Amino acid sequence: MDDISAKNIISLYQRHADIWDKLRKDQRFEQAWLDSFLSLIPSEGRILDIGCGAGKPIAEYFVERHFSVTGVDASEPMISICRERFPEQRWQVADMRSLSLNEKFDGLIAWDSFFHLTRDDQRAMFAIFEQHANPGAALMFTSGPGNGEAIGTFEGEDLYHASLAPEEYRALFDAHGFREVKMVAEDPTCAGHTIWLAQFKG
């Protein structure tokens, strides 16, 4: 698969942040999953949104429900939009692959961001998830339904995606202290997303 398209993900979202935001911000198809995620988090708990984009609709949903959000994204224009929209929350330009905040959170989410990483980078992310998780913390991310790579398009450019096999994600949960709560492959109620929800045993 094309290594160049994998390396260009950050640049793509930097250059097309405004267009992506306009397309994405008013969609709420993932609400049922967000509610399941929040059900595992203490009231007014702290959430780390990894690959937060421009903050809508996901971070916005958490803020509306009185959770504290720290959002990180490698696209500086996306973070700038977040800071304008939700100045009371914390936003940081950062590459998730090298994330080290020296803090722990009650929930970690990487929705439609984690699956842009190569498979090796996805494997390495589980140590980062573990590093930032309080005991009992919820973890939710989207992946592909099976092992492989795929190239989509956005604004006429290649858009890289990758996924591990379900059994490998489960092995990584075990290795890093998480237990699987729920997984649905290509959920028809959530725009065909494949979603993983887990909890850190601590």
TrEMBL record:
Gene3D superfamilies found in the cross-reference section: Vaccinia Virus protein VP39
Highest taxon in the source lineage: Bacteria
Residue span(s) of domain Methyltransferase: 47-136
GO biological process: methylation
Sorted UniProt keywords: Methyltransferase, S-adenosyl-L-methionine, Transferase
Sample GO molecular function, one term: methyltransferase activity
SUPFAM superfamilies: S-adenosyl-L-methionine-dependent methyltransferases
Name the record gives this protein: SAM-dependent methyltransferase
Organism: Rahnella sikkimica
